[in-house]
Design brief:
The structure is a single chain. This protein has one domain. Helix content is 60%, strand content 1%. The protein contains 18 helices and 2 strands. A two-stranded parallel sheet has the order 1-2. The N terminus and C terminus are likely disordered. The longest helix has 27 residues. Bound molecules: zinc ion. The site of zinc ion has 6 residues, from helix 8.
Length: 421
Amino acid sequence: MLLNPTSASQRGAYLRDYSQKSALPEFLATRHFHEVRNTMSTVKIKFANKNASAFENAGAFIDDVKGRVAEYFESTGRSRHADWRMVLKTVILFIVAFGSYGLILTGWFTPWGMLALAILMGAGYAGLGFSVAHDALHGAYSSNPTINRILGFTFDATGANGYMWKITHNVIHHTYTNIDGVDEDLSVSPLIRLSPGSRHYWFHRFQHLYGFFAYGFATINWLFAKDYQQFMKKDIGPYTNKTHPKGEIAILILGKVFVYAYMIVLPLLILDITWWQFLIGFLAMNMTAGMILGIIFQLAHVVEGPEFPVPDDDGKMEHAWLVHEMITTANFAKENKVLSWYVGGLNYQIEHHLFPQTCSIHYPVISEIVKETAEEYGVPYHYHPTLFKAMGSHYRMLKELAKPETNHETLSAAAGELETA
Ligand SMILES: [Zn+2]
């Protein structure tokens, strides 16, 4: 087979050990672990050269897929950045998110009316995250870096730090996609085991039952804990002894104070509601945003199809980076125009991972080029036809990873059975 799903089993041994709970304490104490950790932290993970990839036509595939997409933009004279459709979407989402907030503050509504507006506000926040901030922070929204910087502050204004996102998402997740121990997206919450190399705790046995609900706490965690924790980590993803510019620390603090002030203090001061009524609204808003964001992001990598490749003992990956992105990423529901509009092309994650600096508004068109080229070369193009099918697939992955015995080999075997079923 061209891209062998069981290839992980032939790779470095440390992740297999790492996944076994019983072996963990001993393993953590070994010199080997520290060497591995050190190796991982100083980015000794290296992707194969495109001409030395395990997939022998990698070089030609990579040149062709990049060349054909470049040719599309050249021949049509289109910019890779936002056009009027994107600007219109930005305006609409700003109105939904901050308009709902403004209406809540007017005090014109009953508590039930305010609750409905809080849910709408959460949906608006998730949309702004997907469609405005994500593109802007990737430098994909505009060719002008100042515009990207300004629109990137949407992220900070909704409660999450844009600078830290650029490190954990743009650099770490986009480079080391689905690689255990490095990709930060695989460790979103200790409550959920998202990869075969992560440690299994007893409560993970039930994670398929509570997983989708647990994603709802993502933005609250972000608001009060995650950013601070990430800033304080010395070793983050591939970096060791990471320090952050003072200006970014100031933005973190000012941003959080600003968000706490308008999201918590102001409504409590202005509105004629009790603290528990506020709490219900605050939770409804955040659970809506968190659940939408959490689920949509998981459907790209933790579904049946995408692999969890493992480096060998020297940190070498068997595929070239672009092929690695193809085997670790999935699209879903591309026919669903409303969803595609709202999630900012995050249902076209394959194209997003191949061309992160191209605005999401172009993904539906270039996906045809990428898919055709992948098929021509026999490279996987993972795809789930509807949102619900993709969610079902994520549910089955959570259930598989809920088993303590699930590791890289068993997961690959299970995925292989599902693919051939
Ligand atoms: Zn991204």
